[in-house]
Amino acid sequence: MTTAADSPRPRIALLATGGTIAGVGTGEGAAYRAAVAPVGELIAVVPGLARLADVRAEQLMQIDSADFTDERLLALARRVAALCARDDVDGVVITHGTDTLEESAYFLHLVVPSRKPVVLTGAMRPATALAADGPANLLHAVAVAAHPSSAGRGVLVVMNEEIHSARDVAKVHTLRLDAFASPHGALGGVVEGAPRWWRALARPHTADSAFDIGRIDALPLVGLVASHGNMRREPYDAWVAAGARAIVHAGFGGGTVPAYLRDAFIGLRARGVLLVRASRVGAGPVIRNATFDDDGCGSVAADDQNAPRARLLAALALTRTQDAGEVQAMFLSY
Ligand code: SIN
Question: CB 3.0–4.6 Å: which of 29, 61, 122, 174 could bond 17 by disulfide?
Answer without folding.
Answer: 61
